[in-house]
Design brief:
Helix 4 packs antiparallel against helix 5. The chain folds into two domains: about 150 residues, no CATH class; about 60 residues. A hairpin with a 6-residue loop joins strand 4 and strand 5. With about 270 residues, it is an alpha+beta fold. The strands form two sheets. Strands 1, 4, 5, 6, 7, 8, 9, 10, 11 and 12 form a ten-stranded mixed sheet that branches. A two-stranded antiparallel sheet has the order 2-3. The N terminus is likely disordered. The chain is built from five helices and twelve strands.
Length: about 270
């Protein structure tokens, strides 16, 4: 990735070699004739243009989705009860920024370069070692950026630390599979990132939290009551504290398997 470079209208310096680039009217994607770097031109700025190659085909991406559906975050048997309504593949554009503070600490920031329904996708990681020069052969599957770079930089400024500045910027096209599915009459969207296999979704049939909270509250109440036995025993004097402590430990050991079994039963039902 490379620093953002300002340039006069219609003449842009290459971010790699500094050679003059003369794009045609309306041309955004360009290959430097001097060093063959791929660059993206956004009004008066030139940035490197990369893409991530997909390591998954559609069946493997769908298998990743099924594993996620069968995981601990989703409702029980979602992978079996959900119905796939459709899927699509594209290379989605992201503005990728690297910031550096006065202590030379670096941070990476990702912002979508076009509108997307699953905002969680911006939490993906971009492995720098896997970036490739943008290739025109993926044009047909590449989603064109529609959010200008200056706009995104304005969004980013309030989130940057006070002593940090943007040091590098690039446009990166990332492979994604978008899956539409239904569950109990409701429609949902999940995205599988094609380079790492990560699954992202804003809204999905999640496990209900209230049953687990009830079990947790019940366990806390029981052990709080048991903890009062030694205190009451101490107040009675004599062997009261020993008796109270024994009751606390004994009843606690008896309660633990019951509470564990209850938690397992709730997890199996939710």
């Amino acid at each position: 990735m490379s620093d953002v470079i300002s340039a006069p209208a219609n003449v842009f310096p290459c971010t790699q070699c500094g050679g003059e680039l003369h794009p045609d009217e309306g041309q955004n994607f360009l290959v430097c004739p001097f060093c063959e770097s791929t660059v993206y031109i956004d009004k008066t700025r030139v940035v490197f243009h990369w893409y991530l190659a997909s390591t998954l085909d559609q069946p493997k991406a769908q298998a990743n989705l099924a594993r996620w559906m069968g995981g601990s975050a989703t409702i029980k048997d979602l992978d079996k009860k959900a119905r796939l309504a459709g899927s699509s593949f594209e290379f989605f554009p992201f503005w990728v920024f690297k910031s550096k503070d006065k202590s030379d600490n670096e941070s990476l920031w990702l912002e979508p370069a076009a509108a997307i329904s699953v905002s969680e996708l911006k939490n993906i990681t971009v492995p720098a070692g896997d970036l490739r020069k943008y290739d025109e052969s993926i044009n047909a599957q590449a989603h064109a950026p529609t959010i200008p770079l200056p706009t995104v930089m304005e969004w980013l400024k309030p989130r940057l630390p006070a002593d940090a500045e943007i040091s590098e910027t690039a446009l990166v096209h990332i492979p994604i599979y978008t899956f539409k599915y239904t569950y109990k009459g409701d429609s949902y969207t999940a995205i599988v990132e094609g380079a790492t296999g990560g699954v992202f979704a804003n809204i999905f049939p999640a496990k209900a939290e209230s049953p687990f909270r009830i079990v947790g509250g019940l366990a806390a109440f029981i052990f709080l009551c048991l903890a009062t036995f030694p205190v009451l025993g101490a107040l009675t004097g004599g062997n009261g504290i020993a008796i109270g402590g024994g009751l606390c430990i004994g009843l606690g050991l008896l309660s633990a398997p019951f509470l564990f079994a209850l938690a397992v039963w709730v997890a199996a039902k939710v």
